[in-house]
Structures
1.
Amino acid sequence: MDCGVPFCHWACPLGNKQPEWQDKLYKGKWREAFQILDRTCDFPEFTGRICPALCEKSCVLKLSCDEPVTIRENEAAIVEAAFREGYIQPVQPVRNGKRVAVIGSGPAGLTVANQLNRKGYEVTVFEKYELPGGLLRFGIPNFKLGKNIIDRRIRLMKQDGICFKVNTLVGSDISAKEITSTFDAVCIAIGSEVPRDLPIEGRNLKGVHFALELLSQQNRLLEGISIPAKNIISCKGEKVLVIGGGDTGSDCVRTANRQGAASVTQIEIMPKPPIGNNPATPWPMYPQVLKTNSSHEEGCIRR
Ligand SMILES: Cc1cc2nc3c(=O)[nH]c(=O)nc-3n(C[C@H](O)[C@H](O)[C@H](O)COP(=O)(O)OP(=O)(O)OC[C@H]3O[C@@H](n4cnc5c(N)ncnc54)[C@H](O)[C@@H]3O)c2cc1C
Ligand code: SF4
């Protein structure tokens, strides 16, 4: 912890105080490290695993010699220690008599619910799908985020007093009128569900799918949720083409490989980024080009 002027905290969208909690970690003060982290981050067990780690891209050691501190892993280590050592316990807020409905249980809805519950509001989260978590649950593949990590947090949030109503589509299973007449305030955190289409010849052919049709189905299958055989999308034995070289494209490459695809090809309109610590591709420029990550080492032709 000798970086002079740190930049990592400047890059974190949550305002995490990495220089402070890493200093505690370095000195072996795990509880204090967690207390600092907990002030700014509701779910370090998620961000410590799947955040793109903007902090590491602006770490002094990244900028100077392309060897950043493993800040994201440190975050995950601190919160896992906190769970293991019992630093994280259910809260018992003093209730203020106000009721809030949160529509949508993705990370946005969960964060709102967590914050308001801690302030004493009585919070009910409505989710149209079978289980809470939003895209954490039915988008991000299990090899990136194990769903036991979400389950552990949801259990804790229930013990904290938050009520989850799943399989409840607001606007159909429960009307907006009922929601507004039952609750003092409503937070709409329903994400963005409209995929970007590619309306070109052949778009409607059999076997052409949006990424999330494949990924959400795979997560459901792994969750033990049954899908009618006629609706199953399987890459087994198929020659798979992934259009798009970003993170979601990588998730599709890895999922296709795990399903036993005969081959996987990924194409991207943008150029390949230069290798290494090139100042021409600082964050956030590099996600706009063909990204290389471990998914490609698992087997993929890339153009
Ligand atoms: C394949 C994939 C991989 C990703 N990987 C990463 C990653 O590695 N790292 C990262 O930081 N980000 C990643 N992301 C992005 C991240 O998942 C999203 O930015 C994040 O989940 C958005 O959170 P949200 O709460 O706004 O919305 P969502 O997660 O979409 O949650 C919205 C929730 O609202 C529910 N809902 C919608 N309408 C209603 C209604 N009327 N009634 C009740 N419920 C409703 C939906 O069912 C859903 O559960 C990834 C996204 C995808 C698709
Ligand atoms: S991993 Fe993400 S959430 Fe965690 S400190 Fe870095 S930028 Fe912030």
2.
Amino acid sequence: MSAVNDDTVTSEARSGLRRQVGLRWRSRDPLLPALPSDLPPGCGAPLRVTGAGGAVLAAGSCAHWEGEPAALDLTWGAARRFELTAWVAGPGGPAVTRVLDSLLEQWREHLVGLPDPAAADTAAVVTWPSRDVDGAACLLRRGFAPLAVIAARITGTDPSQPATPGLGGAAVPAGVRIRRAGTADIDTLVRCGLEVVRFDAHFGGVQERPSTAEALRREFTAMLALPRPWIWLAERDGEAVGMLAAEQPEQAGWIAPRARSAPVSYLLLMGVRAGERARGIGAALSARLNEEVLAAGVPLTLLHYAQVNPLSAPFWSQQGYRPLWTCWEARPPGCIR
Ligand SMILES: CC(C)(COP(=O)(O)OP(=O)(O)OC[C@H]1O[C@@H](n2cnc3c(N)ncnc32)[C@H](O)[C@@H]1OP(=O)(O)O)[C@@H](O)C(=O)NCCC(=O)NCCS
């Protein structure tokens, strides 16, 4: 097995590799795309692993991303990100682990060769299928932490997929009213959104930026401009105690390539005020979205949660979501071993 430092992977080898990755994904998780999206052009760093007879065992692409100061994306992670898309061939097992390890070593060498690989607020990011478990130990050994999960919930409208069990229409707790938000609620939504960001910031991925409040305001304003915005407030005595904001398929196209079924909806943000948690408000908000998603015939809903947020994983599991992708990060990239 060796690293190849040129760009001579033929299109035939590339499509063979892509097919092999797709085959393993299908055997691991029916919700993954049938084939990986094409490798993005990236920065051009040659990331390839070859085996006997020159067979291409893995290829990768490294994208360099820098957030605009005002962008909401900046709140969800580091200001500068190096994102690896990794295609690793093979049915699974130790061979896959070894090949991924070799690809990560090449990527590490590329990243430490960049100016200031230890700069603050930078991250190396690998998004790997959660059920493709042969990657996990290798990523951990290399110094990556599983910071976030992209979780999926099947709506049950796609005849090729079994419906998700779990809570259907959770009852709204006594004294609480759930209503669709309108433009007059923008200040409340920004305040609730900031509370969620501040809570999630405990777990090392999300961080409040000077621009976060304004970015949330822009995001919610755009969502509220739709005819029936997928944003709801939970209120007690007229006061907001929780909120949920989700993107409809027209806005969620950016994440649809992560899943087999399309279109998808995306749950952007949800939170319940601290003193009101564990009373069923979160479940009722989530059920409200489920009803809307079902009525719209959208087969899948995706969301991100912080892996180590102790409230998130059990809650979303109860609402019928399960891990699809795990977002592994080394911050800064110089931490990769
Ligand atoms: C995650 C979050 C939105 C859940 O909202 P919530 O209103 O607390 O959720 P629920 O009350 O419906 O469910 C939470 C728990 O309370 C339990 N519960 C629900 N109704 C209950 C009741 N009447 N009495 C006692 N427990 C109850 C649920 O079974 C659930 O238990 P579990 O965590 O052991 O599975 C909320 O905890 C929150 O805002 N967290 C901070 C922000 C955050 O983490 N956001 C990121 C989400 S990705």
